[in-house]
Amino acid sequence: MFLTISTTGDPERPATDLGFLLHKHPDKAQAFSTSHGTAHVFYPEASAERCTAALLLEVDPVALVRRGKGKGRGGTPDAALAQYVNDRPYAASSLLSVAMSTVFKSALRGVCQALPERARTPLPLRIEVPALPARGGPELVRGLFGPLGWTSVDAVAVPLDERFPEWGDSRYVRLALEGELRLADALRQLYVLLPVLDDAKHYWVAPDEVDKLLRAGEGWLATHPEQKLITSRYLSRRWGLTRQAAQRLELVRLAESDDLDVENVDNAVDETKDTEERPVPLAEQRRTAILEALRTAGASRVLDLGCGQGQLVQALLKDAAFTEVVGVDVSMRALTIAARRLKLDRMGERQAARVTLRQGSLTYTDKRLKGYDAAVLSEVVEHLDLPRLSALEYAVFGSARPRSVLVTTPNVEYNVRWETLPAGQVRHGDHRFEWTRAEFRDWAGDVAERHGYSVEFRPVGPDDPEVGPPTQMAVFTMTAADTTHRSGGRAGDAPENAPRDNRANGSQDRPRNGSDNGTGNPAECRAEKEGEAA
Prior knowledge:
The protein is α/β, with parallel strands linked by helices. It contains 18 helices and 14 strands.
């Protein structure tokens, strides 16, 4: 099997720089031993104007059979013969991907100590694969490579026999890609898509293949329109691995939509500390106050938005009055811990029908959240940057529109009562702001007026006569006869009537994790909501 990589240049930026990027000298022909044969790298042409590197993989059919763990042995003679007489030595497949990862290991990572800037710069590339198996035909080839930045994707079906055109086309195509891409990006795309198009892998697909897929697909797979097909085929339709890859890719997509790192999105769990719930008086009082307010509202179908590790979901399930409980959080780690806390894998069928854990960002509308009796935002709003708060308001009050909404948040005035909390600091490092009672009432009143709700306020915890309670709660109740959205806007867009900056104390100007890009972590970071000492 064979592929070529070509580029052009000029005397100032010679095309022979390709040799530096591939870590293979243009004046040498080199051979490398791989799992299934010998890979050869050589340069049919190498000048300042044009340079072409070729990768030729000579497959050892005997070694391929031996590594096949005896498949076909004991079968019919024809089946046994097919192990030796097949297209594996000629058609680009997962065997060529394995050879690429061996021969071009540094180039796949984008590492070049000699020309680091050249490695980071897009090059005019032409990649040709003369025999590429494509289960799906040229249309699928164009559908996979087309969205990846190539200006030309030329996929031509290879006829079964040119002398007999009536026989039709084979399942192979001649592929030529042209465009300006980083060499590392182009190699990663080939590494993933060659076995995807062949729809077969010639080695055992272990769980670490998910990590390989995500590394090679970084920057393009999460948003690819054929993501499901790519992950399914690459992982040999092992549904457990495919589901795991899809969940991690969704987390990447949510992080990119808010211009955050994945680590900053999936941070609801502090891995340096014990995540088991410990008795915390204020946390217990907060849950008790929420349950009481939900019972008073007559709610039976409840959303816990930003459910974290599932403490409130667990409390709701203990009361038969709540017939359906949906926990929503952007962090898959938090949802995994919540599922373990609730013992979902051992839960009875009737009880399991009452609960759903769902991944989602609360700053984007979700039609699945419509039609519920009540929604709870417990210790959530303070984790958002103020410019993102209006997006959450619209997603909950304007789009989902439950009959009741409960919002709890710290009362910054009470912070002076915490002896261990330094003056001027918020209670948790991830809080973007903490409101006074007046600021919270001002915000809640505006939200209620815009979206057709009434609102009342209740203290949570000891109500200090000077500074108020440690936690403040607003109970919103829908007053409008219909569910017409009053604030307009689209999913993920902040309406024009965003909250006023003077409602928060000075903490909103502090950068989070060293940067302030104006896009807060979507209401998922609530690891402290049940575990804080206060």
